[in-house]
Amino acid sequence: SRILSHLHPQPEDQILKLTALFRDDPRPVKLDLGVGVYRNAAGQTPVMRAVKAAEKQLWQDETSKSYTSLAGDPGFHKVMRDLVLGDAVDHTRVAAAATVGGTGALSIALDLVKRAAPGATVWVSDPTWPNHVPIIGKCGLASNVYRYFDAENRAVNFSAMMEDLARVAPGDVVLLHGCCHNPTGANLTLPEWQEVARLLTQTGALPLIDLAYQGFGDGLEEDAAATRLVAAACPDTLIAASCSKNFGIYRERTGIVLAVTPDAAAQGVVQGNLAALNRLTYSFPPDHGARLVTMVLESPALRADWQAELEDIRTSMLGLRRQLADELRARTGSDRFGFLAQHRGMFSRLGAKPEQVARLRDEHGIYMVGDSRMNIAGLSPATVPALATAIAACGI
Ligand code: PLP
């Protein structure tokens, strides 16, 4: 038979399937808390003001769309290195490559690990972003899980996490969410991050930090604090950062791998390998989104406006969290949903059973992912009461 007839059908993407179900639901009142895209109170995902201004300026000023360099534009490396790492490490130790979104950054980072340590196991939190384990496998690496989420309290089970991380081998990789854990919303405190960093230096494992939501949690600097702390403590650190959410440029596919290397000599070799991996994967990385990010971060006026808009996004999600926790306290007479106000980022795992998630959908038109992950940005102050009523009615 023909080669192409040997392929297996692929499992449906659960979140995209949910989006289609929602779209086809004829009920006039329904609520989509599924896909991980920020939406304002009007349900829109607008182009950020500073990004639009940069785009207009770029349209006027850009004189060529010839190729950039294999690792992307050095100006983009610099602004992103500063945004993510600040002064945490000596800049001569940092190698960087622009990538196709945060997903591309993860993939290139893991390709780099495969070259350096083909037998490495990559440890991921239980649970983690559903794309992590398949990408690790695609890069030819083994994966394993460390305990992370305590389903009972909807918080991090830190002692279990530390117990599991203590067993990681020196040549292994530990994948950490730098902030705003997806899908749970539960995060480590800074003192806990310090303990993790200390353990990583003791075991000799390589940290790989996925930073997809900087600015969505406690603030731009605050959300980078864990990444900086780990990078400062460990001899080497890989970071896969995404600009999709905090610049609202999802479809432009803008991300970066930052590799903090042991010394300036290693930096050159790692930089060469990152460029080579980009070359093998797609030759040159996309430039449009990276250039917009660079323009916004380099212009004091655009940067200030971007930060203000990002801060509005962040505080609106925080307000929705508090409102929902308050409404649930009023309806259930208990504090068991207080975790919603403690969680950070766009998601919280509600902790509902699959049949309760189904009831929310069938009886109340409320769509969340099967593991009961809710996109907080799918709410608005006007829809929070209906969600609280439905959660209480379903006995969650
Ligand atoms: N990592 C996490 C945890 C995410 O949630 C996402 C996006 O949903 C990404 C990485 C990748 O984002 P993108 O490839 O769209 O930049």
Automatic annotation (TrEMBL):
This protein's cofactor list reads: pyridoxal 5'-phosphate
Q: Which family does it belong to?
A: Belongs to the class-I pyridoxal-phosphate-dependent aminotransferase family.
Q: Which InterPro entries match?
A: Aminotransferase_I/II_large, Asp_trans, PyrdxlP-dep_Trfase, PyrdxlP-dep_Trfase_major, PyrdxlP-dep_Trfase_small
What GO annotations for molecular function exist for this entry? identical protein binding; L-aspartate:2-oxoglutarate aminotransferase activity; L-tyrosine-2-oxoglutarate transaminase activity; pyridoxal phosphate binding
Q: Where are the transmembrane segments?
A: none
Q: Which domain of life is it from?
A: Bacteria
Keywords linked to the UniProt accession: Aminotransferase, Pyridoxal phosphate, Transferase
Question: Where would I find the Aminotransferase class I/classII large domain in this sequence?
Answer: 30-391
Q: Which Gene3D superfamilies match?
A: Aspartate Aminotransferase, domain 1, Type I PLP-dependent aspartate aminotransferase-like (Major domain)
- Its protein name is Aromatic-amino-acid transaminase
Q: Which organism is it from?
A: Actibacterium naphthalenivorans
Give the matching Pfam families: Aminotran_1_2
Please name the SUPFAM superfamilies in this protein's record.
PLP-dependent transferases (SSF53383)
The keyword Electron transport belongs to this UniProt entry's keyword annotation = no
Assembly description: Homodimer.
